[in-house]
Model the fold of this input.
Amino acid sequence: MFDNIEYKNELKEGVDYHLTKEGYRIMTESFLKNRGYCCGNGCKNCPYFPKANKGNTNLR
Done:
């Protein structure tokens, strides 16, 4: 999922993501903004508008 991000192995829990009790990673809004584009997966903290529009770079 994050193959094109150079620091994928340096993600920090609580900063870049948090884990749900089921074990899923929820990426933070700041991580998603720093990535620079929408992935189109409908992320809970998606900072882009319209939400879940792959490739979108328009921040809310």
In short: The mean pLDDT is 88. Strands lie at 17-19, 25-27. The longest strand covers residues 17-19.
